[in-house]
């Protein structure tokens, strides 16, 4: 399909009464192909209708260019017909006359019989033959909208522009009209651009969905390709495997924009106090037992003790929310999976590189691999049993959930599978799922298992839907779990605040490790603003119990290590191992300048200063070699040879990663 409409670097500004200007849209680039149906979705005020009006020629951009088949759009024309929500019918003219008015005005040179035939054809096309001689006041809302659509289509436009055309209709009428519109557009190969607030409508009608960020300076945040085949039926679309993932993606985007708007509204300039450059912080976390240090630092006053008097905790439902908050600078700091600072710095999965540093390991261990209870009932007790089961059921797709590509959940699950000759990219389907959704998806049968932190392994066991087949203590005892992450430019701008933050959380980690505080910490975590779950599901665990007992699957759980003389210090060796695993599975290239990257990311100096100021002089560096359960020893002196010798892996690339002084990153790929 060729390009019909091209929107190039559009900016739209409106003058304000005080002489300033409001920039509604900025940097919009979009192409619409011939025969393509594109939807615009976003919150009110994001500029959807403004963009549609500029494509229609009803308004002109302040900067940028809109072209139709290569010709600049300067004014409205019959090649672009707009259907508004309010129908725009003349009340003193019948259905036939409203359509005829447009046809006769635009096609006045065509023979009268041809024009009449065209009018009658489009009356039939939208099913209005019985109402052809009625006036708008005698029609329902759905019938009026069909008149507006017939009038637009009768002019044979190259592009149909729809501004929330079904917003005022009841659900049944809306559904019927949506199906009629799809049929008409497909049969006549009409391109369409539609503004909508309705997520289900966007998925049903669109080939692509363009999601706009909040204004001012709204831009395209994401474009989704809808891979559901045509022709589509409303009641059948929901059965397609992509339907709910597409729907969830849009809802996540809209919810995230709502959260960003709230954070923008409360965001103030840095407040300096007590020798700290900034005492007002927004700190992100995900509801897991591992968020205990952050919750405790807030509830027990450790933030305030170290001068951070205005700390707000931002509860994200997924690690993706943490990534977006850090990349968009809406969060000052965040709890992160141990691999996320590297993943963001190296531009994980094709994202724009965002340099992130870490000066504290907040937890170690705490993850488990849970399988659906039916595997246990069929005799699966070990990884060997699971591997045999997969061989016997190659005709089925087995889906396992993990929480983020950068997380140790993903990397350890992949390592565990590969060690037993299960290729995680061929023999199973790995899917990224928010932690709190894991148990629900397991109950619903959409996944077969997952690797996640507590309390979601224990909860699945207690509720009888799953069992823990292995904890991460068996795979790599003592691995880093969650770390403190901040942007590198933030760390450079607020060095004293960064140290104070590490001190507060390090004290909280020590508090969490005291067995005398276990019940209090569990009660804190169970609260609505943190994990929001039953107290019985939250167990901090005995770190001496390394192996789960699959003969008692209903009560096993992973175990956390919050504090010890060597647990909290960042380790460049551990980050380097994570770097090899991210490259092993194609999440990031392996940096040719890996030593430089580790020096930048792993802020050992910040940790040492914080520990020294707390009087924790015995915080040692753990020099024990990394040795996982399969006996493979990681050699930090030669990571590329280690990577090459791994039996199951993807083709990995090597890249030069450039971190400029202002913390902008770029990745130059090499073969």
DSSP summary: helix tally: 25
Give the total of beta strands: 24
Strand order of the largest sheet: 6-7-8-3-9-10
Average pLDDT reading = 87
Radius of gyration: 29 Å
CATH topology of the largest domain: D-Maltodextrin-Binding Protein, domain 2
Which structural class matches the secondary elements? alpha/beta
Low-confidence stretches: none
- Proportion of strand residues: 15-25%
Distance between the termini: 34 Å
Helix content: 25-40%
Largest sheet: 6 strands, mixed
CATH top level assignment of the largest domain:
Alpha Beta
Second rung of CATH, namely the architecture of the largest domain = 3-Layer(aba) Sandwich
Taken together, the total number of domains comes to: 2
Q: What overall form do the CA principal axes indicate?
A: elongated
Write the topology of this structure.
Layout (H helix, E strand, L loop, with lengths): L2 E13 L5 E13 L3 E5 L6 H9 L6 E6 L2 E2 L7 E4 L11 H12 L5 H14 L15 H14 L4 E5 L7 H18 L2 E5 L3 H7 L2 E5 L7 E6 L8 H4 L5 H24 L13 E6 L6 H8 L2 H4 L4 E6 L3 H9 L5 E5 L2 H6 L10 E10 L1 E6 H5 L5 H10 L6 E4 L5 H12 L9 E4 L5 H7 L4 E5 L2 H7 L3 E6 H4 L4 E8 H6 L1 H19 L4 H9 L33 E2 L10 H13 L5 E2 L2 H8 L2 H10 L25 H7 L8 E6 L5 E6 L1
Helix pairs in contact: 2-3, 2-4, 3-4, 9-20, 9-21, 20-24, 22-25
What tags apply to this protein structure?
alpha/beta, 671 residues, 6-stranded mixed beta sheet, 25 helices, Rossmann fold
Q: What does this entry look like structurally?
A:
The protein is α/β, with parallel strands linked by helices. It folds into two domains: 3-253, P-loop containing nucleotide triphosphate hydrolases (Rossmann fold, 3-Layer(aba) Sandwich), CATH 3.40.50; 267-366 and 479-670, D-Maltodextrin-Binding Protein, domain 2. Helix content is 37%, strand content 21%. The chain has 25 helices and 24 strands. It has a six-stranded mixed beta sheet with strand order 6-7-8-3-9-10, sandwiched between helices. Strands 12-11-13-20-14-21 form a six-stranded mixed beta sheet, with helices on both faces. A hairpin with a 2-residue loop joins strand 4 and strand 5.
